[in-house]
User: Fold this.
Amino acid sequence: MARILILTHEFYPFRGGIGAVAHGLAAGAAEMAHEPIVHAPDYGQDQVISDESLPYRVSRFPGRTCSIVSVDGIARYTLRCLGAIRRIRPDVVHAVDPAAHMALSMLGRLHLIREHFFTVHGTELVRYRSEPFPRLCMGGAFRRVRAVAAVSRAMRDVLIENFPEAAERAFVSYPGIAQEWLVTPAHDPHAWRSRWRVGQDDIAVLTLARRVREKGHDRVIAAIAALPADLRARIVCFIAGDGPTGYARELEQAAAAGDVRLTLLGPVSDRAAIELCDSCDVFAMPSRRTPKRIEGFGIAFLEAGARGLPSITTATGGTREAVRDGETGIVVPEDADTTALARALRTLASQPELRQRLGRNARTFARDFTWARHAAEVYSRFLAALD
Assistant:
């Protein structure tokens, strides 16, 4: 049994992919009889779910998210990480978010720690090269780290492209999804669809993600608007997730201009998210790459797939590994225009048998993506690197 310290500045109640990975690794490690401890901020609020209800320890410190371009913020966080390491005395020190990478890099450079490990997600690798302070902090970091887990093959490629010295230390382990997505009995969709005025012959298209431009919500609306009027009238677009109000207004205006039936649901609980997926017909998240962001993998595609939804996405970052084109969904080129996305939507909307077949395949595909499998892959590699 190993004592594993997981360092992250993104964790519950903050909702996001990195926080989900941190929780999944800790839960999976606990299932393996290791002793995981998550070191995370308290976000200045009481927790909606008590940390004591989790199957592992959580060590909270005062604070919120930490910008990786904040010199003072990273300096303070580095000292907090050093304090946690000295207090907890872990066998494995694992940084799963960018601020933690930078903190451990600085501690390693100062010879205050030796053995440590990273998980990389993608976006941070671009910023480590493009922004001065992160570049300074991460100088030599991938020579000092003992091993690096990448969340997809695409992100391992990005890592090696930017930091060739990491090639021998890097491996791929896909994140898992919560067991609830796999085992919760299917909800009856009729009441939900009736409440939201989704007809029996309507097609409900869902995007469940942070409401930010990189996730491509606007592209979904534009694709629906480009469909023939008779088909467009049968499609209802649901967007769930939190994000800037300005972007929300932009989406509403685009929907009104394109005669698209749009409902913005805002943030939803995990249980409500499962009910949403059970009640909709297609999951669409045509992510786009920007100079500062890239889709590392796409846990949301697996969650939707676990509930039997086929996905539509773009071939950006690791999405091609989360969605298998022609098997669990439709993947269009990264630079696909509105016409290509509209064609993919039309295909799934007009072919119920194809939609159902891809949904069944997506459900089967998602079953292998468990926290226990992810934690076993990651920590067996990390512990072997210590021998």
